[in-house]
Design brief:
The complex is a heterodimer of chains A (372) and B (199). Chain A is α/β, with parallel strands linked by helices. Helix content of chain A is 25%, strand content 27%. In chain A, helix 7 (320-329) runs parallel beside helix 8 (346-358). Chain B has one domain (8-190). Classes of the chains: A alpha/beta (372), B mainly alpha (199).
């Protein structure tokens, strides 16, 4: 044999031998056999193959614990309660754990390995969460920076409540080498189980929004995971005070269309305050006007903060918080009580909470999903 | 070449004290400085390093004398040693994970980090140039690991005390005072030199 070949062949041989030993060890050592995962005190029993992370094991069984990073331990979203003792918290979990979490045995599902029978607790609504393969049916420009994306679901149906959100799976593109997930509220009606509609505003430098605005085309295949979220209409006679800005329109479009179509929550009076800067940022005005004309208990109050004289704006003028303040002190009937529903930037949400609290709404009656 | 004529006990003590891998040869200092903040992690890393160095020197001795030397490919020994270290660490991790989850938890992220700890490769290369026989290689390996373990425990104890000391100037806190401390420790270990006539 040529002496030149001896070196490389030996290195290759040793590497192969080690890899082989590791593979065989892995097969024997990492074989925990069939294990049982009992969820919520036995309400659901899974028989799984042990040896991998809890997050992926549950995912393979069709239970999608929310995870924005996909199991790298960098988002802290996949928290769940593990009742079985699986040892102390790992250094990789600690940054996401409050002292209360540690006391309650809250763990990160992506860091816990399934190596014995486990008893865990998950929120019930996670069971209806699925991954949907969808096709982009249409993309419409609502304003210069907001697009309406209509996705049609292939072969499955989605069951959700108006106000919930889905995670849009963004594949690697451009300089991005890893897939990412971002949350968007659904603007489609719960009655339409074959479609998911999202409103996406372009955020400069945003991973998902840039992809949607610059790369996504009609006919593309897109994956969404959902539905998630606690933001929904509460079944009380209290009037709804809804406030939104920009793409915060999405959950309210879903709620309003749902209530209008099905006549759900008939006692509720609905006030919807929608804020924008100029008419360039306004959208769905005609749809909302038509809705309020044919639906006596719905009142739509669009407001511009910086209307230009040539725009001929006839609606309210001022910051949405000021307009809200004026209406809460005057036009809004408080007889049946009030509930606040907010969707928009964290700054807008906080400002609105302050105005609402000043006007007698209690914090436990103000509902919102915070996407930061 | 013949193996050096060294007693096993003196070789063991020499590798811990007179030629301490950390304080006399300055190998493996990166994790020495970064992990020595608290006692518990130092203990975990010390145990792990000792196990890995001991095991790897035994395995690499065999690879050296049964594969590398017969084939005359000494020029590739660095690469082969590193591959073997990586493989051994990986196997060790899997075995500990399976049979002692509590130790695995205690070692945590330190175990895989040892792959790139230069103390491990250093000990193996010393073993090679000093022509140790198999038993000597194993004793030297575990001794060096124990020396590393001893040093990091000493440093961790000093640092826990230093943390409570407010007299340290702000600019020296953390790594600065740690490096100075290591210098003093190294000087103290010079005191052992000559005690045992083993290189």
């Amino acid at each position: 044999m040529s002496p030149i070949l001896v070196g490389p062949l030996t290195v290759a041989g040793i590497s192969t031998f080690l890899a082989l030993v590791i593979a065989i060890l892995d097969k024997f050592l990492n074989n925990y056999g069939q294990l049982k995962i009992s969820i919520n005190g036995g309400k659901k029993e899974l028989t799984v193959k042990g040896g991998s992370a809890l997050l992926g094991t549950l995912g393979a069984e069709g239970i999608f614990v929310p995870s924005a990073c996909g199991g790298r331990g960098s988002c802290g979203a996949c928290k769940c309660k593990v009742i079985t003792d699986v040892g102390p918290h790992l250094p990789t979990e600690m940054p996401y754990m409050s002292p209360r979490d540690i006391e309650d045995n809250i763990r990160l599902a992506c860091q816990i390995k399934v190596r014995k029978d486990l008893a865990i607790e998950l929120p019930e609504e996670l069971f209806s969460i699925k991954k949907f393969k969808t096709r982009v049916e249409s993309i419409k420009d609502l304003t210069y920076d907001i697009k309406e994306i209509l996705l049609s679901i292939d072969g499955q149906t989605i069951e959700f409540q108006a106000g919930q959100y889905v995670q849009l799976v963004v594949p690697p593109y451009g300089d991005m080498t890893e897939s990412a997930q971002r949350a968007y509220s659904m603007s489609s009606r719960p009655g339409d189980t074959k479609h998911v509609e999202l409103l996406v505003r372009l955020v400069p430098g945003g991973i998902a929004t840039t992809w949607v605005h610059k790369f996504l085309k009609e006919g593309d295949m897109v994956e969404v995971v959902g539905p998630f979220g606690e933001f929904r209409i509460h079944d009380t006679p209290a009037s709804m005070i809804c406030v939104a800005g920009g793409s915060g329109m999405a959950p309210f479009k879903s709620m309003l269309n749902h209530m209008h179509e099905t006549g759900a929550f008939p006692e509720k009076e609905i006030w919807y305050f929608f804020g924008a800067r100029t008419t360039k940022d306004m959208f769905y005005l005609d749809e909302m006007a038509a809705l309020s004309a044919s639906w006596p208990r719905f009142h739509f109050v669009p407001a511009l903060s910086e209307p230009k004289p040539e725009e001929n704006w006839k609606g309210e003028v001022g910051l949405i918080t000021d307009v809200l303040d004026r209406y809460l002190q005057g036009n809004v009937d408080r007889a049946k009580g009030l509930e606040g529903y907010l969707c928009g930037s964290p700054g807008m949400i906080n400002a609105c909470i302050n105005v609402m609290k000043r006007n007698g709404l209690t914090e436990d009656k103000i509902y919102f999903d915070k996407f930061a | 070449m013949n193996a050096p004529n060294v007693g096993l006990l003196s070789l063991f003590l020499a590798s811990i004290l007179t030629s301490n891998i950390l304080l006399a040869n300055f190998l493996g200092t990166c994790s020495f400085i970064s992990i020595s903040k608290d006692f518990k992690s130092s203990m975990g890393l010390g145990i792990a390093v000792t196990m890995v160095i001991g095991l790897c020197s035994a395995i690499c001795w065999a690879v050296l004398y049964f594969v590398i030397k017969p084939l005359g490919i000494e020029y590739l020994s660095f690469i082969i040693f590193i591959i073997v270290i990586a493989g051994v660490v990986q196997m060790l991790e899997m075995i500990i994970d399976r049979f002692s989850p509590s130790l695995y938890m205690a070692l945590g992220i330190f175990l895989p980090l040892i792959t790139v700890n230069c103390a491990v490769l250093g000990v193996i290369l010393f073993m090679q140039i000093r022509n140790y026989n198999f038993v000597q290689a194993v004793v030297f390996g575990f001794g060096s690991g124990a020396g590393w373990w001893l040093s990091i425990m000493l440093l961790a104890s000093i640092r826990t005390k230093l943390d409570k000391n407010n007299a340290i100037p702000a600019g020296l806190k953390g790594t600065g005072i740690t490096l100075i401390t290591i210098g003093f420790m190294a000087m103290a270990f010079i005191g052992f030199s000559g005690m045992i006539a083993v290189q």
